[in-house]
Amino acid sequence: MPHENGSGSRNRHRWIERTLVAMLCLSLWVLSSLGCGSKAIRLGTERTVCSVLDSLYRTSGFEKPLTLHGKATIDAKQRRVRGKIRVDARPPDQFVFEFTSSILFGSQREDFVFSLVADTLRIIDRERGEYYEADDADRMLREMLETDLAIKQVVSLATGGRPSCDDMTDLGFRMGSKGRVVFTGRYGGESFRVVFAAGHRRLEEITWPLLLEGRAADRLRVIYDWEATKEGNVALRGIVMSVETKEWRCKIRSSGTG
Fold first, then answer.
1. Closest CA relative to residue 70, chosen from 85, 82, 89
2. Model confidence over 61-101: pLDDT tens digits?
3. What residue segments make up the domains of the chain, in order of their start?
4. 35 or 231: which leads in pLDDT
5. Contacts with 109 (C-beta within 8 Å, 6 or more apart), sequence order
6. Helix 46-57 vs helix 6-33: angle between axes, to the nearest 10 degrees?
7. For 1-258, CATH number?
8. Whether the predicted model's global pTM rises above the 0.90 cut
9. How far apart are the first and last CA of the chain?
10. Per the CB 3.0–4.6 Å rule, which of 51, 75, 190, 244 could disulfide with 219?
11. What is the distance between the alpha carbons of residues 55 and 68, in angstroms, rounded to a whole number?
12. Is residue 205 exposed (0-12), middle (13-18) or buried (19+ Cβ within 10 Å)?
């Protein structure tokens, strides 16, 4: 009998796992097409569940660079700001936000450029001619929003990022209503939930714990609004982000994407 070396054994195991993931994804598509209701799907290991989750995230709508421009409303405690926003996202680690606004019922004008590149936050205050970077930018953002938002985690999770498989436990998924695929589990000791829409399988809703020094300090919820275009693509038309205990909410309605 031929002897199978370690490399051949690992390749075989990877091939089996990829085949299983492909079959599971096909099963999800079939169940969705049949309009099946809430059905729990049993898998052998959490690693396989995470592989399926990873496969869906690769077509979640954020796997390619995305440009979004439109109107935004930001609520931070007792302060509401409305204005125009442009987002250039190149996940997983390059993001630029331009925001120009006037405070509701006030005369103060805001004009900022925020960039987050390789975990470094930079802010240009164009209205006042000031520049902030790294710790100074984090501090300035806390003062402006009157809270610590863990902004790097918020941006990453809201634009298709997720923790590694090793950091998640109790993974499972099921078919939800109207063909949705719902993943659940625990991260940082707290529950999370990720919902993929039927059909185009874009992210529809996420709820993730926000960690501070390795422990859950808050929760982020994001709801996405995708719309079919005339060209036959699916474009992001709206997004609502909220942080539970910080009294912070951001709603963006797009007038166009790229």
1. 85
2. 888 888 888 999 888 777 788 899 999 998 888 999 999 98
3. 1-258
4. 231
5. 100, 101, 102, 127
6. 60
7. 2.50.20.10
8. no
9. 57
10. 244
11. 24
12. middle
